[in-house]
Design goal:
234 residues, mainly alpha, Regulator of G-protein Signalling 4, domain 2, 11 helices, RGS_subdomain_2
């Protein structure tokens, strides 16, 4: 009698099943879902990494930006005290100029010191060929009506300055610069000496982040005629 498995080969299917084969298949089936889930987990990690790189997660990185005196923390108390001797002394030192500029930014009046610095640079021009483009830039930025950073000048000073822009001289902005200088010396400078960041520097403390404040009104040089405030620092 012939072997029934030879007559019916399909019956050999059950006989051909072995445990090792099913173990491999079972393991492969179980691993498939895990393999499919890995890309999703990787994408989540990438999204989290990108999220952590956003600016709002690094607020501490902005503490040294303009608007505070953090960078002036390396100034010695003795050096800071000298800034109170005169406005000239403050502006003649890089650290003092930097600290005062940051202070003006907290009061939204940084256009004054920026104009003064631009005038200082203008006077350093080595040839008349350099004067014309610089003069036009300064005039359009700080002096002409509705300039983006218009400084507060009286009518006469603005008129005299505008008349010499066509043929500028090294002294073209002297009157305007002196006016703005006096405004800062008699208005902003005393407030700077009374500000907490400056007083902390004098006392050798780390400067605190200043509070932004808006000016109550614009001052003109006429407001300070004959006034010499006391700049003594205690």
């Amino acid at each position: 009698m012939e072997n029934p498995l030879l007559l019916f080969p399909q019956l050999n299917i059950s006989a051909s099943k072995d445990k090792p084969y099913y173990k491999v298949m079972k393991s492969a089936i179980k691993e498939e879902p895990r393999k499919a889930s890995k890309p999703g987990a990787k994408q989540k990690r990438n999204r989290l990494s990108l999220l952590l790189q956003k600016p709002e997660f690094h607020e501490g990185d902005h503490l040294g930006k303009p608007g505070n005196l953090t960078k002036a923390a390396s100034v010695s108390p003795e050096e800071a005290v000298k800034w109170g001797e005169s406005f000239d002394k403050l502006l003649s030192e890089k650290a003092g100029l930097d600290a005062f500029t940051k202070f003006l930014k907290t009061e939204f009046s940084e256009e004054n010191i920026e104009f003064w610095i631009a005038c200082e640079d203008y006077k350093k021009s080595k040839s008349t060929h350099e004067l014309l483009p610089k003069a036009k830039t300064i005039f359009e930025t700080f002096i002409q009506k509705d300039a983006p950073k218009e400084v507060n000048l009286d009518f006469h000073t603005k008129e005299v300055t505008s008349q010499s822009i066509g043929q500028p001289l090294p002294s073209t902005f002297d009157a305007a610069q002196n006016t703005v200088y006096r405004l800062m010396e008699q208005d902003s400078y005393p407030r700077f000496l009374r500000s907490d960041p400056y007083l902390n520097l004098v006392k050798g403390r780390s400067p605190a982040r200043p509070t932004l404040r808006r000016r109550s009104r614009s001052f003109t040089v006429n407001d300070f005629q004959g006034v010499r405030p006391d700049f003594t620092v205690w």
